[in-house]
Amino acid sequence: MFSNLRKALVVATAVGFLTACEKKEVTGFSIAGVAVSNAAFSTLESAAIRGGVVGVLSNPNAGDPSGKFTVFAPTNDAFARLGLKGADDLLVLNQGFLTSTLLYHVSNGNLPSSSIMAGGLNSTALGITKRFIARGSDKFVNGSKIIINDVAASNGTIHAIDKVLLGTGADIAQSTIALTQSKVFASPELTFLLEAVLYCELAGALSAPNGPYTVYAPNDAAFKQLGTILGVPLTIPADIRKLPKATVTQVLLTHVFAGANGNKFTSELNAGNVSALNNQAVTLGAYNNGVLTVKGAGNSDAANMVIPDVQCTNGVVHIIDRVLLPK
């Protein structure tokens, strides 16, 4: 099944189906045939080329008895939310991660919108399962809203979504390590966060089978900004160790949520106060265009979600641009 999916991302990529969306069906055409004419999916096409997965959705799915695929297809605007506005921007992503990300958008079998129900699950080639969520009258795959559904082709169904689906296939600790080792972005990221986690000996707590958690993960720029606020320059990750271990531990725990607040995609979050793992209150802002702001009791300004809705095997991570501070 995995090899067939790996070959199959072709059309997910070229998805030029918007011109056919009003009819929601193109009789006799494969997904590839539907996916040629619309520039609104040009970034997805470029991603498939770079990811080495252009190829098979013009044919029946040999890996499924139905011969069908279901593709959740991010629009150009969905990619742009991540700063990916064209083929050149895709070079910031590690090629292997890009390939697996594309595969995360493809499922075996034909799944019409009538079968997409809140609480339903959808398996992927990564060994993790996407979740269907309802928010008002809208339907979501994880944190991504389905904005056009049931575009039918001879070999499956396409649903357009407003955010790129992100899944690591690893636990939160290992996913953080992968980011620091340039296995996601071509340049390392979350290096300060990893150093802080190791310093405070919390890596084990963020590994499977613990959780599931919701983690708001400050990026490197957020920690450098914190150094400016504290008057303690945080220029390289090792500088974290200039700060008291107990203090750093409390700060880190302010970013982690479990129980009723764990494992939450943006589509499941609402404005208000929630309690972190250390019982500190953290304030979520209003749900707006698929994201929320996050503010610690000790912050004067709220953090924004830079990369929301990263699914790990033991929870969900939202990368933010400010370190959350306890009271």
Could you describe the 3D structure shown?
This protein is an alpha+beta fold and 327 residues long. It has two domains: 2-164, Roll (FAS1 domain); 172-320, FAS1 domain (Roll). It has ten helices and 15 strands. It has helices at residues 2-8, 10-14, 31-34, 42-50, 76-80, 95-103, 172-180, 191-199, 220-230, 245-253; strands at 69-74, 106-108, 121-123, 129-135, 138-141, 144-153, 156-161, 166-167, 213-218, 256-257, 272-275, 281-284, 294-296, 305-312, 315-320. The chain has a seven-stranded mixed β-sheet. Strands 8-14-15-9-10 form a five-stranded mixed β-sheet. It has a three-stranded antiparallel β-sheet with strand order 11-12-13, with no helix packed on it. The termini are far apart. 47% of the residues are buried.
CATH architecture term of the largest domain: Roll
Count the helices. How many?
10
| Average of per-residue pLDDT values | 88
- What is the string of SSEs from the N terminus onward? HHHHEHHEEEEEEEHHEHHEEEEEE
Alpha-beta content class: alpha+beta
